[in-house]
Amino acid sequence: MEKSNVQVPLRERDISSTKDISQAVITRLPRYFRYLGDLKDAGVERISSQELSRIMRVTASQVRQDFNHFGGFGQQGYGYNVEYLYVEIAKILGLNQLHRLIIIGAGNLGQALANYMNFEKRGFIITGIFDINTELIGEKIRNIPIQPMEKMKSFVQENDVDIAVLTVPKSSAIKVAEQLVECGIRGIWNFAHIDLEVPDNVLVENVHLSDSLMKLSYLISK
Ligand code: NAI
Question: How many Cβ atoms sit within 10 Å of the Cβ of residue 45?
Answer without folding.
Answer: 20
